Amino acid sequence: MTAPSPERQLAFLGYLQRLLSEGSFVSTYKFALLLALAEVCIEQGDDSGAPLRITREALAAQFVRLYWRQTLPYTPLGRQEAQGLRPLKQNTGGQAHILTVISVARDAAGGSLAALKADRKAWRQLLNKVGATIVTMPLWKLQNIGGETLPFLYAQSPEAGGQSFIDLEPGIAFCFRRFHELVYDLVTAAWIRFVRGVQDNAPVLGEGQELGEFLFGSPREALGPFRPILLDLQDGACFYCDGALKETGEVDHFIPWSRYPVNLGHNFVLAHRRCNGSKSDRLAAAMHLERWCRRNHQFGSDLAAAFTARHLPHDLQATWQIARWAYGQAETTQARAWVTGEQLVALPAAWRTFAGMAGLPA
Description:
Blueprint: H1 6-22, H2 29-44, E1 52-55, H3 56-68, H4 97-108, H5 113-118, H6 120-136, E2 144-145, E3 148-149, E4 165-168, H7 172-178, H8 180-197, H9 202-205, H10 211-216, H11 227-233, E5 250-253, E6 268-271, H12 273-279, H13 286-309, H14 316-332, E7 336-340, E8 343-346
Antiparallel strand pairs: 1-4, 2-3, 5-6, 7-8
Helix pairs in contact: 1-8, 2-3, 2-7, 2-8, 3-4, 3-6, 4-6
């Protein structure tokens, strides 16, 4: 297979824009499905242009991740009291069924997604429930645009109820990967507009502008439990400059949150506030990438055990795939990578050799 032509890539973006502007939305399920497809393409796809088979289970797992935080009561900025707070409505009618199902599972797991995943029976039951709803609701309605069916992502199934997977059309996984940041921004913006437009949410939301952060942000307090694990592994030194961490340091997303908004333990490093701040949303230079790859290659299993013991989210294989995708995109666009301070350098082709540490093709 070969990568889709520039014309087909533009067509993908055009169809996506039509879907978001002309599609019928009575809940946020279609937004979640688009993001779920994009995330699975990052974690399981490649840039060959080949079709990609995606299971119902994989989509359900992404739905749980996306909605997990949104099952919490919405707290407007500056409001401290808990009385009267509730989760935001994600449906123009009653609350979206998937949120209700996830909320019950969240309560049973004490609010910890990692603990829920560790309970294989409970996790499987949740994925089955969420997956069944995906199949009966958004999966076969997503591509209905303006009164017609436009199957540009995957073929419509004549027997939707029994389908356990979909096959993305050739070139679609490539486009989701190439335009991931744009897709994410377009879909989350439409999702936020939908939630703000649900009448039952108006009294809770008011005129606050923090809705997007609540729905899709990464609260820094959630990263705190990773700090002692990383501090011990790094012998109390900053990952980037190797200087002593006089305080506890800051937990940094090695692959920036802005590029792939998922908290996974193996992606984290501990850094000085100065280093973390100057790196910001940039990819780290090859020297840092090599060190990060060697760390995860050598200590990946030890880190996984420590994360599991504390019920912290982690997936080393997905982390490898995300890193390879992010640096592949940077190479394609000739992006410059961060070294220190404001120093940026070109990304050498040698970065691909580091993929061998994960058993990934260079």
